[in-house]
Design a protein that fits this description.
Blueprint: E1 6-10, E2 17-25, H1 29-37, E3 47-52, E4 58-67, E5 78-85, H2 87-98, E6 103-105, H3 110-117, H4 123-134, H5 138-148, H6 151-176, H7 187-205, H8 210-214, E7 216-221, H9 228-236, E8 254-260, E9 263-269, H10 281-296, E10 299-302, E11 314-317, E12 333-334, H11 343-357, H12 368-386, H13 390-408, H14 414-422
Parallel strand pairs: 1-6, 7-9, 7-10, 10-11, 11-12
Antiparallel strand pairs: 1-2, 2-5, 3-4, 4-5, 8-9
The structure holds guanosine-5'-triphosphate and magnesium ion.
Length: 428
């Protein structure tokens, strides 16, 4: 399935840059090469060419490449112009391309959308690609790369095959039962469905890929002047939060996302918790917000009196360098954000804990959409397990297969595709 219009876009970064790669995809990609570079080079060979517009004016000297379809990134004929990355150079090349018949600028994600339409990649791979382009930390990159490379798709194909096999068994029993009404499914059949449902359940229980984007959420809490903001600044290596000896300095929630050892974190500094009689109206709002943050946290670092923090919080004995410092009997960490003592140990422990809670590197993680489809499949299998009428079992298996198809994009809707590809940048 080839789209009628040929598209082009700058696929490299925003100019000015050393090189600007303009990609052209579609039926007229070869003509675009001939028109601008004067010839169509040998496939997959970079050649130097003078680029000219229709009037013969020289635009740039560039490396050009020719990738005849269908074995290309988009599944269509593809041309690349590796120009000098100046703004005016790119603009001139784009203008010359736009002047060609049936050729227009690409929309965001349109190259990838064509790759999907032409069966070069499936939906899970396209989503992985989107995540890869958006990845900011090492952990995000590794997870996205696994999906873009088709790890999830292969897994789903495997499950789909097994459901097909099970469906075939049911069909067999159904054919047979035309003659004898006592036909039953073999015992191992239910066992096989159960095993498959169990595998899906294990995948569904894994941390979701969105968790990687949000990061592991660590909230610092405690009474005023406990040293929350000072520790927050030390952990985020910033001066984002104002610190002062005045109790009630922090009034609003401050959050900052950072990567430590490639692991994404969001640290949240909050207003000191104290009785509102002492606090003013604005501080009272800050305290209410701080309490709301505690509920959202993946982990709370408690800098207040021992044992008074929320359940599961890590007891931190802060300001250990101060004279008259009162240690905590069961402190998980004793540290001074001012001297830095003990902060590295805390960071190390945070990284270890966050790694457990976030998708593992190299393990494909599901996003919300994929999770919903896989849940449908798991539900259908769980229900098939409990049924004895082969007709009903066959119907549940069909439902599971449909959910797998939706997951990898064999059955999709236009608006779903618009949403997915719309989040890509132009030129991808
Ligand atoms: N010596 C020493 N002083 C610290 C340490 N941590 C914080 N302080 C000081 O203690 C005071 C209060 O620190 P903050 O970090 O502002 O305390 P907070 O918990 O954010 O306080 P509120 O925002 O009012 O709730 C400031 O003057 C800090 O400089 C520390 O580890 N050692
Ligand atoms: Mg503060």
């Amino acid at each position: 399935m080839t789209q009628s219009r040929t598209i082009f876009a700058l696929s490299s970064g925003v100019p000015p840059a050393g090189i600007g790669v303009v990609r052209v995809s579609g039926l007229r990609a070869g003509e675009a090469l001939a028109a601008l570079a004067g010839r169509v080079p040998e496939p997959r060979r970079a050649v130097l060419a003078k680029l000219r517009d229709a009037s013969g004016a020289l635009l740039d000297e560039a490396l050009v490449l020719w990738f005849p379809g269908p074995n290309t990134a988009t599944g269509e004929d593809l041309a690349e112009f590796h120009c000098h990355g100046g703004r005016a150079v790119i603009a001139a090349v784009e203008t010359a391309l736009a002047a060609l018949p049936d050729t227009r600028r690409a929309e965001p994600g349109e190259f990838t959308r064509r790759a999907f339409a032409n069966g070069r990649i499936d939906l899970a791979e396209a989503e992985g690609l989107g995540d890869l382009l958006a990845a900011e930390t090492e952990l995000q990159r590794a997870a996205a790369l696994a999906n873009a490379g088709g790890a999830l798709s292969r897994q789903v194909e495997g499950w789909r095959e097994r459901v097909l096999g099970l469906s075939a068994e049911v069909e067999g029993v159904l054919d047979f039962s035309d003659e004898e009404d006592s036909a039953d499914l073999p015992e191992c059949f239910t066992w096989n469905i159960g095993a498959l449902a169990g595998e899906l359940a294990a995948w569904l229980a894994r941390p979701r890929s969105e968790r990687l984007g949000e990061g592991f959420r660590v909230v610092l809490a405690g009474p005023p002047n406990a040293g929350k903001s000072t520790l927050f600044n030390a952990l985020t290596e910033s001066e984002a939060a104002i610190t002062s000896p005045i109790a009630g300095t922090t009034r609003d929630v401050i959050e900052r996302s950072v990567a430590i050892d490639g692991v994404p974190f969001t640290f949240v500094d909050t207003a000191g918790l104290r009785e509102t009689a002492e606090a003013d109206a604005i501080e009272a709002i800050g305290i209410a917000r701080a309490e709301a943050e505690l509920a959202r946290a993946d982990l709370v670092l408690w800098l207040g009196p021992e044992g008074e923090g929320p359940e599961g919080a890590w007891e931190v004995a802060a300001q250990s360098d101060r004279e008259g410092f009162a240690p905590k009997a069961a402190a998980r960490f004793t540290l001074s954000a001012t001297t830095g003592e003990g902060v590295a140990a805390l960071k190390l422990a945070l990284v270890g804990t966050a790694r457990e809670a976030l998708p593992k590197p190299g393990e494909a993680a599901l996003n919300a959409r994929q999770h919903a489809r896989l849940s449908e499949a798991a539900e259908a299998l769980e229900s098939a397990k409990t049924l004895s009428d082969p007709l009903l079992v066959a119907e549940e298996l069909r439902r599971a297969r449909l959910a797998f198809d939706r997951l990898i994009g064999r059955a999709t809707t236009e608006d779903m595709l618009d949403t997915l590809f719309g989040r890509f940048c132009i030129g991808k």
